[in-house]
Task: structure prediction
Amino acid sequence: MNWVTEYAKWKYNQHQDAWIAIDNKADRLLTYLGGGTPVLVCAVIFSAKEIGPLVSLAAIPTIILLIASILQALKVRNVGPFAAPPPIETARSCLEQQGEDSELAFTKDWGRATESLAKHSAEKRKVLARAFTCFTYAVTALLLPVIVAIAMAFCA
Result:
């Protein structure tokens, strides 16, 4: 029976590592976007007269997508409720009450915690994918002001 408990712990640790990796990716994205988005917004606002109102308007989709990406990454960082492995006190109490059968009960708790963590990790992974998708679209949308500026230069 000991191998079942060890497997449950190993599986939980795998999902916990995935959870941490997802949080770290969201954190890096937030760090990157948190520095770049205000710079872009300030550049558009303070240089609107020099670059023209059409170029400034063409930058709005990029700004909206960057903000959407930030909001999605923040959502990833919000920890939702999920089952944790049983605390040591529970294990001790379980051992006192059930004797040798306690390991099976303890393993079931590990299994529930693992399933809960896996479910929440999958949800976080989907939200992180949306954050990166918004970021990718935002970078692509940066072409709009450039295209508008080039078109205005040719028309002038």
The chain has seven helices and no strands. The radius of gyration is 25 Å. The longest helix spans residues 2-46. The chain has one domain: 2-155.
